[in-house]
Amino acid sequence: MSESIGIGLLVGMTVVVTAVVGLNVLVVSDDSGSGVPQANFTYDYSEENGLLLVTHSRGDAIQAGRLEFEGPRGEAKANWSQLAGRNRTEMVEQGDIAQLGEGNAYGRRVGSRDTVTVYYNESGNRTELDRWQGA
Questions:
Q1: Interatomic CA distance for residues 31 and 112, integer angstroms
Q2: pLDDT tens, 7-47?
């Protein structure tokens, strides 16, 4: 009799543990859509014109208004939508290009020794995605 009760308790505990683990995998760890997007950028610099072309080379699509550029010492700031003349909610995808320079929202020439940082900004929380360290 006690053996039957012991086996019943073990089987019952196994079922409960399996159910808890299954729910945890299906419900709790489903965090698709949250977190910081991943993206890589390539840079083409023209010293003669003081321009930097930034190309989204691979990774997640990101809203143009959330991709920000910051120049050396935080002096120059602009987002992708301002630089590329796009709506803030349009998605920046692989192959899209933004130009940083004096004649647009960036507001200054890009020097060969400048550092330009690319940030993802979601509700004021900025995360660095990439950095150009000069030519």
A1: 41
A2: 877 777 787 777 777 766 666 544 445 588 999 999 999 99
Annotate 86-133 with three-state secondary structure. CCCCCEECCCCEEEECCCCCCCCCCCCCCCEEEEEEECCEEEEEEEEC
**Cα 102 to Cα 95: distance, rounded to the nearest angstrom:** 23
Number of alpha carbons in the 13 Å side-chain half-sphere of residue 48? 0
The tens digit of pLDDT for each residue in 102-126 reads 988 888 999 999 999 999 999 888 9
What's the predicted TM-score (pTM) here?
Answer: 0.71
Name residue, tokens 């630089």: 83
